[in-house]
Specification:
alpha/beta; Rossmann fold; eight-stranded mixed beta sheet; Hypothetical Protein, Haloacid Dehalogenase-like Hydrolase, Chain: A, domain 2
């Protein structure tokens, strides 16, 4: 393999792909990402997570890298802790979707994610401790509709403990229709609702265009159906061995599981073959 066969961008999902099952990053993966950066490869995290959960991962990309977070809702600069770009709902759209979800599932608990943090119904978080950064008691004091009017909502979350997880997705899809994009990142019992056209794939394509990088020069790694458009857009789309069956059925390139450091192994092999 020649130097030109190296990607210019490595885009990787986090949970179930780069991270171990316990949410940690192995020393091998840390070393592989550092070697990729040293070789001039831009490493981009592409995740459904909000940015408040990413601070501890900034050192994986030298503390200066970027993440596509909120499932494609924002491009985040890990060094400054700021959004470079974001795409959100207008408040009327959130109110309409919330009304539909509450009518379909009377016990539904909603949350909204913004660049400046989360707001959620008082019954959305079971634990009273609110230990997650940004999930403060003040932000749970009212229904999410009463917290609108500030930063745009990038993501609407719905949970119903009385509704079967599969039925929850079906009901959410009926409510959403073509007014939004229903994503599934693997969180059981949670409907994740994005603005129309906002996906991991769209955000990654836009970011790479900003960098002047063609799809052929991008390697993307993932494990869930929500990752499939990204994997199919990239020049090399790779599933980890523990990926969802629908993903494994549609991609040709499979590496070891997240527990086996599959992403790291692929990077190591490419660097060694230069």
């Amino acid at each position: 393999m020649s130097t030109t066969s190296l990607p210019k961008v490595v885009a990787t999902d986090l949970d179930g792909t780069l991270l171990r099952d316990d949410g940690t990053v192995s020393p091998r993966t840390r070393a592989a990402l550092a070697a990729a950066e040293a070789a001039g490869i831009e490493v981009v995290f592409v995740t459904a997570r909000p940015p408040r959960t990413l601070a501890r991962l900034a050192d994986l990309v030298g503390g200066h890298g970027h993440a596509i977070c909120f499932g494609g809702g924002a491009v985040w600069d890990l060094a400054t802790g700021c959004a470079l770009e974001s795409w959100g709902f207008d408040d009327d759209a959130v109110r309409a979707l919330a009304a539909g979800l509450r009518a379909a599932m009377p016990d539904v608990a909603l949350a909204v994610e913004r660049v400046d943090g989360a707001s959620f119904d008082p019954h959305f978080v079971v634990s009273p401790s609110f230990e997650e950064p940004g999930m403060t008691a003040e932000r749970s004091a009212a229904l999410v509709e009463e917290t609108l009017g500030g930063e745009p909502v990038l993501k609407l979350l719905a949970r119903s403990d009385a509704t079967d997880p599969v039925r929850l997705q079906e009901l959410a899809a009926t409510v959403v229709g073509d007014r939004a994009h229903l994503a599934y990142s693997g969180a059981v019992g949670l409907a994740e609702i994005m603005p129309p056209g906002v996906t991991k794939s769209a955000a990654l394509a836009g970011w790479c265009a900003r960098l002047g990088v063609e799809p052929a020069d991008v390697w993307a790694f993932g494990d869930m159906p929500v990752d499939l458009p990204m994997l199919e857009w990239a020049g090399r789309g790779v599933a980890v061995a523990n990926a969802h069956p629908d993903v494994l059925a549609r991609v040709r390139d499979v590496v070891g599981s997240n527990e086996e450091d599959g992403v790291a192994a692929a990077i190591e092999a490419a660097l060694a073959a230069r």
